[in-house]
Amino acid sequence: MEKLTKPNWIRVKAPVHKTYFETKDVIKGLKLNTVCEEAACPNIGECWSKKHATIMILGSVCTRACAFCNIATGRPDQLDPHEPERVAEALGKLGLEHVVITSVDRDDLDDGGANHFAQVILAIRQTSPNTTIEVLTPDFRRKASAIETVVAARPDVYNHNLETVPRLYQTVRPGARYFHSLKLLSLVKEIDPSIFTKSGIMVGLGEDTKEVYQVMDDLRSAEVDFMTIGQYLQPTPKHHPVMDYPHPDAFKEMEQMARGKGFLMVSASPLTRSSYHAGDDFKKLREARELHLKQAYAKAF
Questions:
Q1: Which residues make up the binding site for [4Fe-4S] cluster 2 (predicted)?
Q2: Coil, strand or helix at 60
Q3: How far is CA 268 from CA 121, 219, 242, in A?
């Protein structure tokens, strides 16, 4: 297959802002991993220049080998018991209002790393009580009570990405199961309806529009509040090829469709990523819920 030419709307500028380098120094100095670096995110220059970073806990080596992901696969790192404190220290130095905590898959651990997520949330609450916390977790497949453990720590947002449409799971996300991921998102709402739930997919992997719309319906059935849709970018030649670069207008159409299906928030653009503008989006998400509740109350009375 001939490689597609990357369109001009997908290109980003190289980072030059001094705050970018200050953020990089804080992360490096505390020996933390970020998905911004490990997954080669195209928005790293913009986000780090605004002191926005997505901290990746539980090491930098994943137990799975998804066809879209640039994170290293192999024997995982040993669990670092001091990581929660170092994450909390980093946030204090960066002065973040909102933070996203994610991780590699840790199928080697009995709980998939769920308790470690909880400890990180607790450490942040103790040192930065005004910082809102978003977690982007793996699926915790075959890990009993793992989801309950993370929810009990009460993050403000629980994010788990479906990544793609069900038909492509076998080739794109072979270690995961589509309906298990949907059940995870639904379970979070069942346990604690006050926690915002969020999920995202990539387009350009070979899906069609009808399949994307079905994913929207599935997410709404799981009462997911916030959906993100972004362009898949092939990290290296060995990864899944890009099958299509939808025009920005196509993303606008997908956003309109998703909003019509009842999501409180939708972010859809070629450069949208799960954690892109997460802090600003959280504020909008909270405002959208308050407006929705007011409208529901007005209709009832």
A1: 62, 66, 69
A2: coil
A3: 28, 15, 18
Contact 204, 165 (CB under 8 A): no
Number of helices followed by number of strands (H, E) in the chain? 11, 10
Tell whether 36 is covered by a domain. Answer: yes
The CATH number given to whatever domain includes residue 170 is 3.20.20.70
Number of domains forming the structure of the chain: 1
Asked whether the beta carbons of 95 and 129 are under 8 A apart, the reply is: no
Q: Which residues are annotated binding-site positions for [4Fe-4S] cluster? A: 36, 41, 47, 62, 66, 69, 275
Answer whether residue 210 is part of any domain.
yes
pTM here is 0.88
pLDDT in tens, 102-161: 999 999 999 999 999 999 999 999 999 989 999 999 999 999 999 999 999 999 999 999
51 lies in some domain? yes
DSSP one-letter code for 163: B
Domain assignment present for 148: yes
